[in-house]
Write a structure and sequence with these properties.
Layout (H helix, E strand, L loop, with lengths): L9 H13 L4 E5 L1 H6 L3 H7 L7 E8 L8 E5 L1 E5 L19 H15 L5 E11 L10 E4 L5 E4 L6 H12 L6 E6 L3 H7 L4 E5 L2 H14 L3 E3 L4 H8 L6 E2 L9 H10 L7 E5 L5 E2 L9 E2 L4 H14 L3
Parallel strand pairs: 3-5, 3-8, 4-5, 7-11, 8-12, 9-10
Antiparallel strand pairs: 1-2, 2-5, 6-7, 9-12, 13-14
């Protein structure tokens, strides 16, 4: 997460991840732009098209059970640099957006560790990788794009791009008929305001998933905190002028993390799904004494403990 974005491009991330995972016997398929087009991932492509760096979609398979039982799916946001696009971010602090691929990094690290520990669990990891850049090809506020499941999205803020790439990845995750889907993303600045560096915000439709995640955070000390998925937030993203759903809520700046999660839920069909907004734990200043200052890699330890407990309990 600390590697400069001109080095850690989507292509570089895919290569480094593949090499690391291969050393543990984990299978990785690197999907190119043509495959993404074929799968009609118009939401992901709408973000990627603003950059000269080609998008990559990593498909990671760890078969720890050594059978054909259904996997648990981990989905990670992989924006290797986020300028905000046409809705350009302020220059102050923009350099930190090299770490906007923290969700994808956490997916890779968690599966790598699960393989090293030989956990008896099957896991699919999916990471859509691209940059979010301003250009003549980039998304414009008010554009309408179509996701893999056919839903149309009105893009009113191009800096709310993480949810656009995750939308297609969540749709694709469903094709594996997973027991559960857990996505993780440095998604919203609103989560930093809500929780600070104390914990990761969790939005979920499953008490089973929440209980295991909560227990896992208690064991590792890298805590999680449950956030609301009220119907109110769904209405705020589906009351949309031009499309089925808007990529920002209709009430300016209100409940930003909650409306982002409500947006993602529109692309989830699983009965057990959790969204981890890890923006609040992306960086360590001096809050965690055993971590050096800089990009933290949180909450990898909690996700690994979660996988361990799922493998032991088999709650689904």
């Amino acid at each position: 997460m600390e590697t400069p974005a001109n080095i850690m491009t989507p292509t570089c991330f895919a290569r480094v991840a593949t090499e690391a995972l291969a050393s543990k016997g984990v299978s990785v398929i690197t999907r190119n732009k043509e495959w993404v087009v074929e799968k009609k991932m118009g939401s992901f492509l709408s973000v990627a098209k603003g950059s000269d760096e080609p998008p990559v979609f990593l498909e990671i398979s760890f078969n720890g059970r050594k059978d054909d039982s259904k996997p648990l799916a981990l989905v990670g946001k992989g924006i290797t640099f986020d300028s905000g696009g046409i809705s350009l971010k302020p220059s102050s602090g923009m350099d930190k957006m090299r770490a906007d691929m923290g969700g994808a990094a956490c997916v890779v690290a968690s599966i790598y560790t699960a393989a090293a520990l030989r956990l008896p669990i099957n896991v699919i990891g999916l990471t859509p990788l691209c940059e979010n850049m301003p250009s003549g090809k980039a998304n414009k506020p008010g554009d309408v794009v179509t996701a893999m499941n056919g839903k149309t999205i009105q893009v009113d803020n191009t800096d709310a791009e993480g949810r656009l790439v995750l939308a297609d990845a969540l749709c694709y995750a469903a094709t594996f008929q997973p027991t559960a889907i857990v996505d993780m993303a440095t998604l919203t600045g609103a989560m930093i305001v809500a929780l600070g560096a104390s914990s990761t915000g969790v939005f979920t439709n499953s008490n089973t998933l929440w209980n295991v995640l909560h227990e896992s955070g208690g064991v590792t000390g890298d805590r999680v905190w449950r956030m609301p998925l009220f119907e109110l937030y769904k209405r705020q993203v589906t009351e949309c002028q031009l499309a089925d759903v808007n990529n920002i809520g209709c009430v300016d700046r209100a409940g930003g993390s909650c409306t982002a999660a409500a947006f993602l839920k529109e692309f989830v069909s699983a009965n057990h799904w959790a969204h981890l907004d890890i923006a609040s734990v992306m960086e360590c200043k001096d809050e965690v004494p055993y971590l050096s200052k800089g990009m933290s890699g949180r909450p990898t330890r909690t996700v690994v403990e979660f996988l361990k407990r799922i493998a032991e309990k088999q709650p689904f």
